[in-house]
## 1
Amino acid sequence: MVSVLSNESFEETMMFKAKQEGPPAQEILAQVYTALKQKGYDPINQLVGYLLSGDPVYITSHNNARTLIRRLERYELLEELVKSYLTQLS
Amino acid sequence: MAVVKTVADRKDNLDKILVKGGNPLVGKVTVSGAKNAVLPIIAASILAGSPVQIDDVPNLTDVDTICQVIASLGVAVARDGNTVKVDPAGLDTFEAPHELVSKMRASVVVMGALLARMGKARISHPGGCAIGSRPINWHLKGLEALGAQIRINHGYLEATAASLKGARIYLDFPSVGATENIMMAASMAKGTTIIENSAQEPEIVDLANFINEMGGKVRGAGTNVIRIEGVSHLNGAVHSIIPDRIEAGSYLVAAALTGGDVTVENVIIDHLKPVLAKLRESGVEVIEADTSLRVIRRSELKGIDFKTQVHPGFPTDLQAPMMALTTMARGTSIITETVFENRFMHVEELKRMGANIRIEGRTAIVDGVARLTGAQVKATDLRAGAALLAAALSAEGVTEIENTYHIDRGYENIVEKLQGLGAQISRA
């Protein structure tokens, strides 16, 4: 079913949520890696845990790393990692 | 080594809460560290060969109890505000006494760690539970698979193992406590342990992080397969406890029920997704920020249906508070409890306040009413207590809640936090 907006509905105040532009995946990964290292974690273990489970508890809140990682969908992160790995292989 | 003043000492044993309802909650409240994360982490601290520091520890009676349990094993425990320091060097006993285990069922989580460190554990059998049978056999089955011999003797569970060996363990039910006990024992076993159908709760991930910070090798926590490579020695570590998603959810519900406008700070939003979905469905506005949630109710509540499930489903620990919300929602709400078989004890108390609820097996059918009225009620368990508090805050008149020791088991400074949101509430 197609919904049609009436003229009246355009006169009402409407709220739009613009997509937040942020740093690219590579930059976020680098910042998260540094924060995990600084807190003494094994960054590979923590990032793999996050990618597998989706639980942000794997990512330290130090230096805002947990907030940063949530700005990306997990598939975007995985895409970045696989792309980077395959580029190195070829 | 003595544990500093307990919560009970601090509150002078006042066991009633008086609430004058009708004021919308307004303001900001900060969530404390998670009770369900800190208890197994304090138990796991005895795995370390050197001192451990745990930060963001909430002041709760259950935390006092687990500290007393490990202190009774010869471990030095010191508490300073929200930090607990544990020095396990003095660990010399493998028996957790009945008087402590009987106070708190979760004490049984010390069994896996004791077995790993001492090769022996003797724990008073935790027996039945008010909210359901919660069988201990999943814990025991896992420990047996790692090579422990288990006996039940004169009301005590006795586990012995000359050495623990890694194994593949399938849990019949994704029990949080069983997963934690097995993780702790397996972290110092020889070889690799794989737990299939493991619990996936965030508190399991926090425990895995803690074990890894001590030098352990736990992989896959937060999924339904956890792989643990045993190590011969674990070191001390510094760890911060994750925020309590159940406490956060309880404040969100209370704010919505009173028609308030509350910002709940220090939350991990991903842990609250099923709760936020149901709040939005009931007509409440929820605004998400990075580490906080703002709840505003501008209109009438609508009835909702939900079913409790293991994580990442709707948490059973928030079933009672969310039911309180539905008591004043327009229409009929259907709530199904699938995790525990006896978790509707709050229903009779809510009915005393005017709620219209009937139970059919594991389902509660709630017909919303226009108002609740203050009454004398009893907190029958921890989360029932939170439900009654939320209901009391929105009810007309004064509610007197008895047996509030249940509430103090899981909510840090709840009276003070609610007073900060404008609630008329006091202890008596």
## 2
Amino acid sequence: MSASTPVLLRKLLRDPNFIHSSEGLLKRGNTSNLTNSSRQACEQDQIREQNQIRVREQTRKQDPSREQKQTSEGSTSSRWLVSPSIDYLFVCGFAPWILGFLTSCFCGPFLPGSPNAHQTTLSILFIVLSFLVGESHQFTSILRNVKKQVRDLKANPRPIKWGFWRTYLRLQVAAILVLMVNPQLSIPNLPVNLFFAPGIVTFWLTMFAAPLALLLFPVVLMHHICAQSRAIGLIYCGGQDFRLSEWENRLLSFTLWMLVLTAASSIAQPFGIFQGFSIAFSAVVPTTATLSVCLVSVVATALMFIVRGVRKGEWLPAPTSCLWLNLALFVLLGTNPAMIYVWLFVPLAFHATQHWAVAWSTQCKERINSEAESKWLQASHLILPVIAITFFVVFSPALLDNCAVFYTGKPLASLLPNGAGIFPIGVGQEHLSLEFSLAVFYLHYFADRVVWKGQHKGSSADAK
Amino acid sequence: MQNKSENNKPVPWFLLLSIVSLLFTVPTATSVFAMQLTVPMTVSANNQPLPPATDDSVTVVNGATRRPTVEDMRKTPKAGGLLAEIIDTASKNNHLLLWNMYPAGIRGRVFGGNGEDPTFAMALGQSGWN
């Protein structure tokens, strides 16, 4: 590699993902975007990879047993996201049962106003973990998405386009954001009404979309949990070469949607900004009917896989069975009062830990060339930025408030007016917390559906 | 030569970024936790109830040299009591069980200061939890 090659480019070239994409560029002959030095670097990387492959082939010829051993070890490890015990506990859903049982046994009944020392310790531990594991898991996919966008932009820089309509749209979005922050500047009071008049549809769509996103928050959350469980179950299936037929996929999807609807009518009902909304929702999605259909579909799905196992000898992988069974039990038994202790740990030790496990597994697969790195460095590469961003986003409202008090002697909410009415957008600490919660969750929800697609063949965390 | 260059790798950017971010946010986080999770113990460390308060009894609570009033107890969440509040709310609002146990909901309680989730109580309008 020539000394004139920029440091950043060298780093990117060391990145296997970039090498992969640069190979694609070279193969397609699309080298117009690459400088001479970077083209040389790509070619050198290609030569280096070819040499590695040659060395591997020679090793295989000399000692085939070693190669077989390595392959069998690899296939065993590829079946699990982290390790068998961790996967069964924190991915397949056994941890919430165990932790819930232990909590109810050792800490006794939680009576408001009379915490004992055990309860105090457990509470602090639980709250800290909910920050470090639960809250932070959302940022793994968001951060990965941002990194991917930046990498793509660096590999293929695109200038920002400033056409009339694009500029107009951006100005509209900016105006809507200003109105959200300060609704006292309502549309009739704005002198620029004429300019923004065509954008009034966009404005009202935004005004309705945001409260709707807030109303349906628990339902979308439940769908997110179910979709993630389905995807991880399919990853285990892929690891053991268990392919689902079209009908099996359809029934599975139907069952998962029924689980979402059951939860939406029982333990994850939409929020009720409007008094009548929840009542109307309950009327549309009646609990008993949904629960009955859900039970039937869960039993039918289980029977379908059992019949396939008996007839063809192809059994659903054990981790997938445990994962989906636990998910169904969490939802179906959710209304049972004893389940509160179990549910205390479901978001933390079932959903968030699943996400961390997928993130870890994907990173291990993608950073296959950096074998020299210790596990600690790899773990810190994954965890530290995520924790840092979590802290920053979670505590930034308090940080801003503290700054406002320090410099002006008044809290932030008193400096700028907060939103009112049905659209609680504002700049106060509590408003910002709510807005950040919503924004982070929905970003995570959408990023999650695309961002874990494997960048190499074989890394198949792409079923969400 | 190659080994030498590998040993002299620059400090990863993420490590620097993370440390800087944590330096800024951890003090705030600590102050929030310290403020919100201060424990006005109603029982002693060995689970024995404290002696009943008398008019002249003095206890240090949150730096103040007085016994906490009922109003203080209501406003200030107790670390143990916070989990109790979460479980209590979940049992009363079973239809929002998922949200009650979700980290963002718990965060709302920690920031709220009195065991309730002020952000979503505000989102729900004047009616509070539905």
## 3
Amino acid sequence: MPEEAIAPLRILPSALAETCGDLPFVAIVRNREELFRWLGGPFPGLRWLQVEGMLGDSEAWAEAAHDKSHIPFDVVLSDPASEFSDLYRLVDASAERDIRVTMPAGPGLSKAVRLASALGFPVRVLPGQPMTGALSELREILEFYLHEPMVEAPIEFLHSFLASMEGGYTGSLWVILEEDPDTFHRCDANGRAWVPRSCDSSYVESVSPGFVEKRLKSLIAQGGECASCPWQQPCRGYFKWPDPTYSCEGIKELFSSIQTAGNEIRKELASFAAAEAGIISDPDEGGKR
Amino acid sequence: MSERVFSVILLPTSDCNVACDYCFEHKEPHRLSLVLLPLLTRRLLDHLENEQIEECEIYWQGGEAMIMGPAWFEKAGEMMNRAAAERGRRFVHYLQTNLIGYSPAWNGVIHKMFSGSVGTSMDYPNLHRKLFKGGAAAYTELWTRRLREAKAAGIAIGVIAVLHRASLEAGPERFYRYFTEELGLTDFQVNTPFPGGPAKEVEGGFQLDSSSLAEFMVGLFDLWITEGYSSGVSVGPFDALIDHFTGEQARLPCIWKENCSNQFISVDAKGTVAQCDCWVTSYPEYFFGNVFRESDLTRMLKTSRARRDFVERPKHLVEDEDCLSCRYLSICHGGCPVRTYSALGTMMAKDPYCEVYKAVFACAEAHAGEILRARAAPVISLRLAHEAGVSATG
């Protein structure tokens, strides 16, 4: 029996999303009218709302705090440096629903991540192809994520990447960041499928099944960095998109830091497990081993 | 229906039967009449309905709430609860009183309306809580007698203690023993003082040096962990902080909420609505409105310009203060607006007790770490003991 194919999750602008019916989808909303239209449901296929460009609208958030639909929000910050403090506006709305915060790696990232974490929001950081400044922000949030005991909610992609090193999660960065077109089917306002980060029209490509694997194969065939990269398995060429000539040096350092942390965690867990095993087994017998 | 709980600090009177030095309230003789109470109840229930909130906590305080008399409370409680039940809502009542007016006549209503418990206040040493005649010593003597009578009647008592200079001079040990041994209490809470209300010399004198206060709080925390934590003594806010840092559900005090503005309001006998009792009794410039004159409490809260400052305050703090880089931001959010306002004349700054809070948070974090390690300790210590035995015989 062939395995039943899992339908991709469609992520599309509000107007297009209305045609989705019972199929699973995410609606992108950019103004109050769109937001409250979806909150007025029910819409059986709606998985969450991707809320863009609305963080500054305090009245919209005050309204959203009264909504009891429990539809989760993924609130997207386009400029963390100027928007981070507006995250406080989400507090009341979060009493009624799950809220995740998504933001690009760039100026203000560490501020926004710190505040989102303090408010208990899970975070999805979209690293893109980070240059020096963004890499520095990423290193800062990695340090924060790894060593700050107050962090309770996951900070992606760091969280799943660390878990993948412990065998806890085997999906690639493309999946972790919800950018794999096989799993997350994004459409533009005209209904055309597109791959995230290819917003420049010159990058718009027809999205064929197996996009990530085909592209990785091509990168390896060209003898690029991916061919010998120790992080090829979890990364799958994520950082070589859209510009295949992007240098992954800074990213590899970041991955290396995550791996070091993973090794330390593994060592401590093993030590604890050994201590527990010593109690459970017969002490005399254990002592003679 | 939302699981959110909305709280109202309800002042049925601003009148009081004692004369404490540091009281920040305007003592006015107004009393909430049973004629107006149904209107107030309707406004509250409308708001709960608008917000789809099922339960509303009513914290009755004053002034001195017991001035209203037990019969008044009995009627008020019955009327409010009946009105709530008719609309599928629920009021849960709490009473904060100085206990000076307590008598056995209160026992029925305390057990019925307040689930057999009341909150009261006492300091150690008591220098500033005074009767109109007889001063602080007479107050302490009378309050202690009332406390014992109430306890004998099966009433559970929680006590709030406000620290002052003499408390710090006495030190944490004498302070702790007064409440736990001399009074036999198992539940008390320590509040930091603030010079609320119109400036008065004596109120200004209640501001304490942060490092001395921090030292006292940490000393008290340490003592409670050693002697009280495992033996059923609850000391706020330390107990909530330990819950938080050990990963348990914690109800932290309002001063550390990310935004207190949507969690409670205060209403006085005249219907004035403000953020909390401190604001409603002291700062007219921050009144939200009047619940008897405005028909829609929800709209009042939504549109009040004064309230907007409360909503926007945390945003300002992470932009302009050093709160964002603080490791305790998630449990503090810049502290209490009224403590800030009363000390600095603006709420758009962090709480002046920032350094005290940090010391207490660090202390809580360290103790919680020890508690968590102790929970895992049987495994580790047995293993170590076993290894020591092996090497000794090996």
